[in-house]
Design brief:
The structure is a single chain. The chain has two domains: about 90 residues; about 70 residues. Helix content is about 30%, strand content about 20%. It is built from four helices and seven strands, in the order ααβββββββαα. The strands form two sheets. Strands 1-7-3-4 form a four-stranded antiparallel β-sheet, with no helix packed on it. Strands 2-6-5 form a three-stranded antiparallel β-sheet, with no helix packed on it. Helix 2 crosses helix 3. The chain is elongated. It starts with 7 loop residues before the first helix and ends in a 15-residue tail after the last helix.
Length: about 180
């Protein structure tokens, strides 16, 4: 599953934070900083296993009767489940053709009961993210993203390893999966 792009407002706010940190004035490097900021945010989400900034996601998965875990969390809403037949276009499953659940940990679960989807795949559309925007992120997460982006900009020539403080700032928010996830009863 490919992560959707970050909202433009979040990228712009993070860019401004990086520029303030590095004392960069003017807009001559904005495009480069925005690319690095998007990379830092994506790396942070991958490291923590959490969607930081709310946006709409899609996941394709096998159509099975068993509960399946969406890979991204925290899920705030599951908005659509569509059948993806092997040779045809996607079509919305009827409401009684699937079940959805969001547990107390923000993990989204889906199971398919529609016979027309069996043997195929489904596409699940859902909203996930811990914060509405850049300004709503916990300060250690935002600071780690700024430090990583600043490091990437400053180390363009050197290629040095990222600062260890970034992982230290993000580690308390890291979600770990040990073994196969089982849906709680």
């Amino acid at each position: 599953m490919e992560a959707p792009p970050f909202p433009a407002a979040a990228i712009a706010a993070a860019r401004d934070a990086v520029k303030a940190h590095l004392r960069i004035e003017g807009a001559h490097e904005d495009a480069a900083i925005e690319r690095v900021v998007a990379t830092a945010l994506a790396l942070g989400e991958a490291f923590t296993g959490t969607a930081w900034i709310a946006r709409d996601w899609q996941a394709a998965m096998p159509a099975t009767r068993g509960w399946q875990l969406l890979a991204t969390a925290p899920v705030t809403a599951i908005t659509q489940v569509e059948g993806l037949p092997a040779g045809g276009p996607a079509s919305a499953l009827p409401a009684d053709g699937y079940a959805i659940d969001i547990d107390a940990n923000g993990q989204g679960w889906v199971r398919v009961t529609a016979a027309e989807a069996m043997g195929g795949r489904v596409r699940v559309t859902f909203a996930a993210g811990a914060a509405a925007g850049w300004g709503d992120l916990p300060p250690p997460i935002a600071q780690g993203a700024v430090l990583l982006a600043a490091h990437c900009l400053e180390a363009r020539i050197e290629g040095a390893a990222p600062p260890a403080v970034v992982a230290a700032l993000w580690r308390p928010w890291r979600r770990m999966r040990l073994g196969e996830a089982l849906r709680p009863a």
